[in-house]
């Protein structure tokens, strides 16, 4: 009888441990989709802090998308947090460069910023070129190149084996246009990659900071900047980063006061 009670006791402990392990495993096995849906649910209830926590859990799980950053931007915007809303809209725009809704909400967030910086004017050609370049991401241009090369190959094969004069003319034209567009797309792919490698932008997260002419606190102040302003990072030195504003001004900021996009 004593042995049976002891056996029953051990079985209870083992079952309890297994049950506890299953609960813990279930708690930690929540994937990014569940966090994302939970964030949407909290956002719908106006629980923006809880929504932000869930969206950040999505990012911490190793998954990111324009939708996650966009929703993070919306939740922070609802809480009047300028820098986080601008930052997350900018991150979303990097993943979906031509999304009108993201651009619109980013504009609303930028309207909350204090700094009024007039960008340097662009000539018409450069403006058009940047607009074309922004149609796709790097992966998008690479995919377009592959599709166009495939279309060129198919058109050339059909041209080679087709005997009709009219058909041959059509396939030859398609092949010619395809290879031209493929080369253009390939050029834009490398240009987009080069831009990404050479252009590192950041958002100021400090409520107020001074742009210095040298990387030290005792140097002369160039201008006072505020949270939410976007800067281009040019160089890093110790705890400072050399940045350029949209109007062309350059100076140093403490790197703890900005967040790289």
Automatic annotation (TrEMBL):
The chain crosses the membrane at residues 140-161, 170-190. InterPro entries: SH3-like_bac-type, SH3-like_dom_sf, TPR-like_helical_dom_sf, TPR_rpt. The keyword Membrane applies. SMART domains: SH3b (SM00287), TPR (SM00028). TPR repeats lie at residues 66-99. Keywords: Membrane, Signal, TPR repeat, Transmembrane, Transmembrane helix. It comes from the Bacteria. It holds the Pfam family SH3_3. Residues 1-29 form the signal peptide. Coiled coil: none annotated. Residues 199-261 form the SH3b domain. This is TPR repeat protein. It comes from Leeuwenhoekiella aequorea.
């Amino acid at each position: 009888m004593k042995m049976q009670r002891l056996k029953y006791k051990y079985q209870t402990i083992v079952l309890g441990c297994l049950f506890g392990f299953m609960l813990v495993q279930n708690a930690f096995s929540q994937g990014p989709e569940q966090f994302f849906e939970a964030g949407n649910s909290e956002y719908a209830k106006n629980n923006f802090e809880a929504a932000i926590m869930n969206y950040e859990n999505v990012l911490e799980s190793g998954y990111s998308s324009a939708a996650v950053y966009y929703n993070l931007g919306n939740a922070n915007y609802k809480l009047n947090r300028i820098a986080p809303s601008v930052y997350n809209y900018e991150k979303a725009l990097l993943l979906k460069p031509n999304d009108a809704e993201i651009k619109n909400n980013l504009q609303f967030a930028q309207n909350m910023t204090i700094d009024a910086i007039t960008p340097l004017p662009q000539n018409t050609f450069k403006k058009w070129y940047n607009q074309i370049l922004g149609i796709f991401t790097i992966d998008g241009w690479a995919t377009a190149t592959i599709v166009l090369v495939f279309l060129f190959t198919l058109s050339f094969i059909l041209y080679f084996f087709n005997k009709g004069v009219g058909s041959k003319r059509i396939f030859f034209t398609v092949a010619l246009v395809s290879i031209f567009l493929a080369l253009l797309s390939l050029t834009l792919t490398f240009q987009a990659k080069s831009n990404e490698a050479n252009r590192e932008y950041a958002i100021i997260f400090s409520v107020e900071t001074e742009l210095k002419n040298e990387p030290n606190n005792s140097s002369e102040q160039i201008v006072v900047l505020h949270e939410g302003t976007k800067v281009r990072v040019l160089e890093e030195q110790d705890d400072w980063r050399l940045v350029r504003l949209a109007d062309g001004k350059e100076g140093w900021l403490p790197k703890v006061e900005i967040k790289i996009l």
